Amino acid sequence: MDIAQFVESSFGCWRSQRSVHHLAFGHFEQVISTIEIAPLGDSDEAVISLCKSNNIDPQRASHPFRMSWEGESDWDESESVQGTTILVPIPDPDDPKAGQLLRDQGYAETIPAIGKYHLTEDGTFILLTEYERAMAEEKIWFLNPNFRLRVSLIKTSAGSGVVTASFSSEIRSLSESKS
Fold first, then answer.
1. What's the CA angle centered on 31, arms 133 and 40, to 5 degrees?
2. CA 179 to CA 176: how far, in whole Å?
3. Which residues, 6+ apart, have CB-to-CB distance to 175 below 8 Å?
4. How far apart are CA 122 and CA 143, in angstroms?
5. Which of 46, 105, 110, 148 lies at a CB distance of 3.0 to 4.6 Å from 85, suitable for a disulfide?
6. Fold entry, domain 3-172
7. C-alpha torsion sign, points 13, 144, 168, 118
8. Per-domain boundaries in the chain
9. pTM for the complete prediction?
């Protein structure tokens, strides 16, 4: 599997159930959300702007997409969890299973970020992103075309300690077919 296949397999609407252990606070959180992953064109202004702001030729972008989410957390039931981010994979010209992932908004910190990704032989997508105050490690893999799992770790900036660990199961929302 290469980045194009992985991203195309991710398009659609997903129902996510995430368990989060906030080790720094000794707190457990459950988040139920809907995630929408939609393709963006190579000529999309936001894609071009994100590439240029990172001094990357927009022609190197492969399968850019927008991810939006909305959900509820049992930690703060009065506030919904929502957001959107643009993601632009930049494959390594020497290795089709590796590259960079540009984000206009990061996972661990809500600032623009560049992560390094690679895909394993079994199709697991692994993303490592260094931020100003933290480091994130994410792994996503498909059990079948409509069911995927995601594990995320937020570590200290030195990578020596885990601050947050989460596990998500995500099921694709399918249109009901009429008989």
1. 70
2. 9
3. none
4. 11
5. 105
6. Lipocalin (2.40.128)
7. negative
8. 3-172
9. 0.90
